[in-house]
Amino acid sequence: KDEPIISPSLLACDWSDMKGEIKKCLDAGCPWLHVDVFDGVFLDSPNALTFGPQMVGSIRKRFADPVLDVHLCVDRPQRYARPMADAGATRIIFQWEAMGDGNDGGDELDDALSSAIAFAKDITSLGMACGVSINPETDVATIFPLLDTGMLDLVDVLAVEPGFGGQQFNHVAIQKIESLRQYRDQSLSPRGIDLKILVDGGVNNSTSSVVTDAGADILVAGTALFRHPRGFEAAVKELR
Ligand code: DX5
Ligand code: ZN
Question: Isomerase: present as a keyword of the record (predicted)?
Answer without folding.
Answer: yes
